[in-house]
């Protein structure tokens, strides 16, 4: 590009538009984080479903996998930040939204575990007195709460980045949340796995594909 | 014809750099070079001119033992860019 070329009004406006569009096209997430979390949540839900369905119990809680996944997520985030040549205005907000989401999820786990403990002793007492199962099953209402939360950051990210697969993924989580209120735990777990696949795994794969294509194009341009 | 337009911005490469920087929070020198398809020497000179005008901030630091130059538009630069676009639009509506 020549620095002192005389520009007409139209050329100036065209150049501004072209450069703004080029800047917008330069945000490429690797999608690896989304793929990983989509896979982790889907696997956890399906393993828990198989535990309920086939009446067995693993020697550990499968959801501990989500804690293990935090380590690669930190490494992925550090690497992505290092590789990024440009910072957008949305970056810090989206980072805080996902951080807040992570903290909220762990708080919800803590709260629901406490309620489950309280409710468990009450349900046992009820059974010993009446000889019947307690009519209210707290476990039936836990998954919709998680699905409701899954939808929020996914929807915001999809809308902010104008990335429709994630936007629709967020809406899908909320639809599953409504359905899960009225369904059994088994269906709830299936809906959770489906939400994780559609909200994170599939958009992550699409992002990763787009990122590879972008990298390939950049490599060809630099040859 | 363009006497009222900001001469700092009314240059192809400087306008391209400012248009890129108005859309992002900050960008590395290599990103600007890649998007404007310019040479490093030419881009350095134009960035220096924008810096001297107070339109951009240039941060030089080391990243993994390599020098890294990051550019960021300043509030003065944003104001100047907005004024430039307004002036351009005025010209086009007058025609």
Most extensive chain interface and residues per partner? A-B, 29 and 34 residues
Look at the helices and sheets of chain B and give the structural class. Answer: alpha+beta
Number of extended strands of chain A: 1
What's the average pLDDT of chain A? 89
Helix share of residues of chain B? 55-70%
Question: Helix and strand string of chain A, N-terminal first?
Answer: HHHHEHHHH
Q: How many helix segments of chain A? A: 8
Low-confidence stretches of chain B: none
Comma- or semicolon-separated keywords:
heterodimer, A: 223 residues, mainly alpha, 77% helix, elongated, B: 95 residues, alpha+beta, Arc Repressor Mutant, subunit A, 4 helices, 20% strand
What are the SSEs and their pairings?
The complex is a heterodimer of chains A (223) and B (95).
Chain A: H1 9-24, H2 32-54, H3 65-68, H4 70-83, E1 86-87, H5 91-130, H6 142-160, H7 164-181, H8 185-222
Chain B: H1 12-23, E1 26-28, H2 29-36, H3 40-52, E2 56-63, E3 66-73, H4 75-94
Please provide a written account of the structure.
The complex is a heterodimer of chains A (223) and B (95). In chain A, 77% of the residues lie in helices and 1% in strands. By secondary structure, chain A is mainly α. Chain A has one domain. Chain A is elongated, with a radius of gyration of 23 Å. In chain A, 24% of the residues are buried. The relative contact order of chain B is 0.20. By secondary structure, chain B is of the alpha+beta class. A 3-stranded antiparallel β-sheet of chain B has the order 1-3-2. Chain B has 4 helices and 3 strands; from the N terminus they run αβααββα. At the A-B interface, α1, β1 and α8 of A face α1, β1, α2, α3 and α4 of B.
